[in-house]
Amino acid sequence: MEEASEVVVALVAAELQVGGNMEIPNWLSKKLTLNDCEVIKEFISEVEKNTSGEVVPMIVRSSSTIGHVPYILLLTFIFLDYFSGFWHITLQLFSLPIYLILTFHVVSILALTFGLSRLFIVQRILTPKIDQTYQVEQRAIKEFYEHKIHHTEEKTGILIFISIMEKMAVVIGDEKINEKITALDWQRCLDRVLEQLHKNNLRMGIINGLEAAKSLLSKHFPKSPNDKNELENSLIIKE
Which of 98, 103, 109, 111 has the fewest Cβ atoms within 10 Å of its own Cβ atom? Predict the structure, then answer.
């Protein structure tokens, strides 16, 4: 895709627009509050007061395919249940009909599989890092074009993309941005995001990323007299 080849992706391996009365999704509620979102929104406006760049921060729940996770867990629990001797121990300890003991084992295994497969840490462990990195990058590129961040008049759109499950972040800059700002510059920006992300301080991570972007953009893309706000100044949250 010719248009996509113009976009430089800075990777560190390491839809709803929030506002008004909208609620934070459950999977994000322990990491971010509505007040945090308002602070981030104000900070985006502050960044764009001094530059012609259009910055869009986005958080997604997960970018990776995780359909394999329940199957791996299910097979693991069946294997452990049988070969650990737990099955035989319960048969000996409880004088119950075998169908009740079998039902207990099946229900326990299914409950464990369902519960654990929903945890981010389990999904991360059971998904190869190389797959996570690739899929986060691809999701970021998809969102960049889907949200028309490449449609700004001066080609100065920027996406700061954070994928929560993988604990990874990506910055994508449009054509004009990449003429002045290198992938190494963006990696330094992402280092600041990820430092806070790994501390579970998502609000500070996004603000740090916006602050680093402001520093880079104000140097290379000062605000012009005819500049207009083309992309909404808000944090986007998606599954």
Answer: 98
Long-range contacts of 180-188 (CB under 8 A, 24+ apart): 180/220, 180/221, 181/216, 181/217, 181/220, 183/8, 183/9, 183/10, 184/10, 185/10, 185/216, 186/8, 186/10, 187/10, 187/12, 188/212
CB 172 within 8 A of CB 158: yes
Chain-centroid distance of CA 1 in Å reads: 24
Chain-centroid distance of CA 160 in Å reads: 10
Structure tokens at 86: 């737990």
Q: Which domains does the chain have, with CATH numbers?
A: 4-64+128-238 (3.10.310.50), 69-125 (no CATH)
Name the residue type at position 196: Q
pLDDT truncated to tens, each residue of the chain (239 aa)? 434 333 444 443 334 444 444 678 999 988 998 999 999 998 888 888 888 888 899 999 999 999 999 999 999 998 887 787 666 666 666 666 777 777 887 888 899 999 999 999 999 999 999 999 999 999 999 999 998 888 877 788 889 999 999 999 999 988 888 888 888 888 888 898 999 988 889 999 999 999 988 888 888 888 777 767 777 888 999 98
Provide φ and ψ at 67, rounded to 5°.
Answer: -65, -20
